[in-house]
Input
Amino acid sequence: MRKPSFIMRSILAASVFCLSTQLAAAQAPDTAARATSATAQGSGILLKLGTGVTRGFSVGGYSGPSVPLVLGAEHHLSPAVSVYGNAFSGFNLGRPSRRSDGSRASVLGDFGFDAGLRYYYGQEKRQRQGRVAGSFVGNYVALQSTSLFNSYLVGLPYRYSTLTLLWGMQRRIGKYGLFDAYVGAGLARERLYYYAGGFNPASSRTRTSFAPEIGIKFSLGSRLTSNK
Output
């Protein structure tokens, strides 16, 4: 009686082992695909060209309204963390005004640069909810530094620099479009210009002030590199 019982236990153990092996093999491709997807999402450089309600945008001024143009790049260090930088300028739509030396100002108004570090939070939650997630998409917090200059000032174009903490969101629009909106605040180091008289009419002083930050950008983006 012991021999048939031993044989039955052996057959049952072998069956359980085979079944567990098949289940593991079935799950492995899905797990590997997710790991590969996560790795691919955490790499690459995104180049962006856009406009919107950002620095360089104005509805008045000596040369009339201006439309900003923003050229930027964003690189993901991981699926949730990226570094980015932008060069921006406002293009005046009206007639260029005369500068302090009598020459015509360029079509550029305010221009400058910014750079920062972003953390895209809640990526796993978005994936569980079946929403679009991964690199360059999602809600984020960022630490950003900005420097602004002005083409109307002769010899002294620097206006101010800021260090701000931002909250924002970036979303895809179709295959190449991007929508980016953010709001935040921080500190600014501002240079104020004034007329001093005599042979030195343009003098300046600096001050530290509160700096609000808000922006809405619509861009076309193309991914430059990615993991294979």
